[in-house]
Design goal:
Helix content is about 40%, strand content about 20%. The chain is α/β, with parallel strands linked by helices. It has a 5-stranded mixed sheet with strand order 5-4-6-3-7, sandwiched between helices. α3 links the parallel β4 and β5. The radius of gyration is 19 Å and the shape is globular.
Length: about 250
């Protein structure tokens, strides 16, 4: 997409993993951040800290206490090494000074199965994966990573509410264009996208798919949003030391 004609018709979806995280953890990314420009945030997802029902904890404070009492004996699963869930929980471990072993899975589905079965006691799920298991009595949900509570799981506190103000993190998908796209075209696309995001049908569909409520942004706000998030992920990667292959 970055080599396509910047005519306003060649657009792409830029997830946070491909847009920011991949390069930071050492992946070979065939473009530079300045090669694309964000137009709007299509939708954001939270991460959810879930545990098997048999783990004797009911909140983040109790999870921290249990982990500190048994250093190295607990494990947590994610949808893969180098994913946002992996990085966020490693950052949480650094902040809370915890020793919990990481087990990478190949996606949310096998992770969820083992979490339900008790093969792994702690799991970091995406919002939609957690939402799908909300009524499952074999799981407990301790916290979400979004700045505000997740409407689809509004009884679950945020990590910020749980005492970790630096853990306000959302997994987003941007509408992006080649950087040389005419500013007037970008402005028109931004206006149109924001109008769509305000439509009730769009809001309802995003909610049904597990997304957080959409947020309209100007082009400048979108750029500022990406830069602020880039700095946040730079801090996370630097603090955790996670690189590809770990």
């Amino acid at each position: 997409m970055v080599r396509a004609q910047p005519d306003g018709y060649n657009l792409g979806v830029g997830p946070v993993g491909g847009t920011i995280i991949g390069r930071l953890i050492g992946m070979k990314v065939p473009y530079q951040p300045q090669d694309v420009v964000p137009i709007a945030n299509i939708g954001s997802l939270p991460l959810v800290v879930a545990v098997n029902k048999d783990l004797p904890v009911s909140n983040i404070k109790e999870l921290v206490a249990l982990a500190k009492s048994k250093p190295g004996s607990l494990s947590y699963g994610t949808s893969g090494a180098g994913t946002p869930g992996h990085l966020v929980f490693e950052y949480f471990k650094k902040i809370a000074d915890l020793d919990i072993v990481h087990i990478p899975y190949k996606g949310d589905s096998p992770l969820t199965s083992d979490l339900i079965g008790g093969q792994v006691p702690i799991g970091i799920l995406t919002g939609p994966a957690a939402k799908a298991q909300l009524s499952n009595p074999k799981l407990k949900f301790l916290a979400v990573s979004s700045a505000q509570r997740y409407p689809q799981m509004d009884k679950v506190p945020t990590l910020v509410e749980s005492g970790y103000p630096d853990l306000s993190i959302e997994i987003w998908n941007l509408l992006i264009a080649p950087a040389k796209t005419d500013p007037a075209i970008l402005a028109s696309l931004n206006t149109s996208m924001n109008a769509v995001l305000k439509e009730q049908e769009t809001v309802s569909r995003l909610e049904a798919q597990g997304y957080l409520p959409p947020v309209s942004m100007s082009l400048e706000q979108a750029r500022e949003f990406v830069e602020a998030d880039r700095k946040k992920w730079e801090t996370i990667v630097k603090t955790t030391g996670v690189t590809i292959g770990q």
